[in-house]
Amino acid sequence: MTAVIDLIELRGLHVVALVGVLPHEVAQPQPLEVDVDLGIDLAPAGVSDDLDDTVDYGAVCAALEAAATAGHVALLERLAAVLVDAVFATDARIATVDLCVRKLRPPVPQQLATSGVRLRRDRP
């Protein structure tokens, strides 16, 4: 099998979800940002110019939003894993997922712009 070197890049998907262990994080949804790279062979789409030969990134964004808002998770690490699974479920041609999910309002007293988790996974 040839190594996948092509990527579809999705940046800055904003979702609101329940994630965290502090009381206000359990009770109040918070803004998150998701970036994802989809590893897929894009050669067929480059030749055909046909949507059927690539991944519908609108469907990926919808799956990410649905997974993020499905219910409370305590850890950002768990949410990232759930999101990766949701991406793989959207299209069997996705070979790899590199996903970052960030809290836009980290619950720390210091001046911290974001806190996040990045996962890199090959299709199981």
Overview of this structure, please?
It is a single chain. Helix content is 31%, strand content 30%. It has 124 residues and is α+β, with helices and mostly antiparallel strands. It has a single domain (7-122), classed as GTP Cyclohydrolase I, domain 2 (2-Layer Sandwich). The chain has a four-stranded antiparallel sheet with strand order 1-2-3-4, with helices on one face. The longest helix has 15 residues, at 76-90.
| β-strand amount | 25-35%
The biggest beta sheet is recorded as: 4 strands, antiparallel
Mean pLDDT: 95
Order of helices and strands: EHEHHHEE
Structural class: alpha+beta
**Shape descriptor:** elongated
Domains counted in the coordinates: how many? 1
CATH class membership: Alpha Beta
How widely separated are the two ends? 15 Å
Strand order of the largest sheet: 1-2-3-4
Q: Compute the number of strand runs.
A: 4
Number of helices: 4
Q: Which percent bin holds the helix content?
A: 25-40%
Q: How large, in whole angstroms, is the Cα Rg?
A: 16 Å
- Uncertain stretches of 5 or more adjacent residues: none
